[in-house]
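Why do we care about 3D structure at all? Because function follows from shape, and shape follows, mostly, from sequence. That is the central idea of this module. The next example makes it concrete: a single protein chain, its amino acid sequence, and then its structure expressed as tokens.
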Amino acid sequence: MSHLKTPLRTFAGLSLLMGLSLILSSGCATSGGPAKPDGVFPEAVGKYKLVNVEDGRDTDYQNEKNKGQSYQSWRAKYSDGANDIFYQVGVHKSAEAAANELGSLTDCYGTDRKLQLYNRVWEGIPLKDGSGKAVGAMAACFTNKPADPYGDNGLGDYQYAFAISNDNRTHIVKPRSDDSALVAEFVKALPFNAGADLSALDAFARAKATKPPTYKEMFDTLPPVKLAAKPYLKGKVLILNRDATKSEQSTSVVNTTDYYITDTNRHALLANDVGSIVRVDCKRSKKVGTYSAGEGDSIPTYGSTCEVIVIDNTVPAVIAKKTFANEDMADFEVVDADKSGKVLFKEYVLPKPIGEIKDFIKALPIS
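And the structure:
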């Protein structure tokens, strides 16, 4: 049954990250900074030869735990004749202080200590030796700002930066090119990393070199249905959203993981890290009433409905399905209008039940 006409209020008119940028001189560095400790910059790292080292500097911490303190850092340039590598080392008062600063060293955060737009960060990735013993930690900053905003984007479009801590030191590696394989090659050749498990860097490099499925391809591919008695999320999560409430022809799929899950360490950022996929598919539903606006304008009003599908990508299988709907007209709605007060559309779709969906996802246990 349709609602009676209800007033409708109107308002008239409503970079690639691969570590820190380095400034290096080709001649002798100026003096005055802290002296370089022995063994920080070996004469050769694999096939790369040391070209020069800047004098040290006192650097302020950017993380909240060490705010107001500083540490010492040095910058150097290595080259194999074809490729240049810029390498920065920080020496901290403790291993804990070094690990605290890892996320900031990836340049993922702005000067306000908040994640910059499009950035996601993994922090505290264990760095272990061959026996599984912890020998440090890694952090990786990812940006999914699309090079082509109109293209088919996916997890392969991420670009990333690394920072590594070992004992009380931090290490950042940046090639002059955008080749992340060079980063992995250089880091694995550093003497202090002998025996360390650096397979994560190889995974980053492979992801950069391959073309994984686009978000739309992942959204459109549904595995067999094996509903679980108690739905769950497994490992790192990717949440994909398609909104066809305004246009039934809409096929655009976007990554909305950061809206539903605030802990970026739970975000799937590489295709082979996706443990769970949550598929949120929103459409316009039936007509639920009519709003009135302006001088007798009648605006037909429709509900919105969203189907949520939870996929365990390790099986793979659809383990949960749930539909959320909004068909309740409020007494008033605020919408766009032109300067004369005329509504700018011929129909109105009620807001999507995103809050309920967020609560549902938040309540899913982590398996």
